[in-house]
Write a structure and sequence with these properties.
The chain has helices at about 15-30, 95-110, 180-185, 190-205; strands at about 5, 35-40, 45-50, 65, 75, 80-90, 120, 125-130, 135-145, 150-155, 175-180. The protein is α/β, with parallel strands linked by helices. Strand 1, helix 1 and strand 2 (about 35-40) form a beta-alpha-beta unit.
């Protein structure tokens, strides 16, 4: 099985990216296209997953794009890396929980290479870090499964503006905060996507 790696240097509009993913899902299902790992960023955008609620929008002036991914409301924008994928689970294990576990493992492995300890939480999907006795979210995960093809993906906060999250209840979680890699540890993250690609292929090499 071949996985195409696509890296976009310029920000991609959210709807344009999702339309591209939808077309790739169709191609993979019909055996007319390769699976995909697409790394990009979005302009400042708020999106709401299928389990989101209007009460999670604190600033009613913002525009929120409704999407068919799992999860609730979140923000995407500059300083954040988006990792979209299209993976055919029918050619692997038809195990959604195992797939999500692998995504969590990829992020945790990558952060560990920067000497940042992180962990998954069964009750609150995503990847978390502990800083000064506070539990903070560093990566969000939102996945859609269609006929055993997994798509959408995850985002990792690198050096984004955390104030953007003040206009929503991120991922519907009130009692826990968010952070980014630059606030956790001052170092270069220029090769973050390369390290993550390597770990992605460790988990999905077959």
């Amino acid at each position: 099985m071949s996985i195409e790696i696509k890296i976009s240097k310029k920000p991609i509009e959210y709807n344009k990216a999702i339309n591209y993913l939808e077309k790739r899902v169709k191609s993979v299902k019909e055996n007319n296209g390769d699976e995909l790992l697409w790394i990009l960023s979005h302009p400042s955008t708020y999106t709401a997953g299928i389990s989101s609620k209007n009460t999670e929008i604190l600033d009613k002036k913002i525009n929120v794009i409704k999407t068919n991914r799992g999860g609730k409301i979140t923000w995407h924008g500059p300083g954040q890396k988006i990792f979209y994928f299209v993976i055919n689970l029918s050619k692997r294990d038809k195990d959604i929980r195992k797939f999500i576990n692998n995504i969590e493992k990829i992020i945790i492995m990558t952060l560990k290479e920067y000497k940042i300890e992180s962990f998954a939480d069964r009750e609150n999907v995503g990847i978390w870090v502990k800083k000064k006795n506070k539990i903070l979210k560093i990566a969000a995960i939102g996945v859609k499964i269609r006929k055993w093809i997994a798509y959408h993906g995850f985002s990792v906060n690198i050096n984004n503006d955390l104030q953007k999250y003040n206009k929503i209840i991120p991922c519907g979680i009130k009692k826990k905060g968010l952070t980014n890699l630059s606030k956790i540890k001052k170092q270069s993250y220029k090769t973050f996507e390369i390290k993550l690609i390597k770990n992605f292929f460790k988990c999905f090499k077959s």
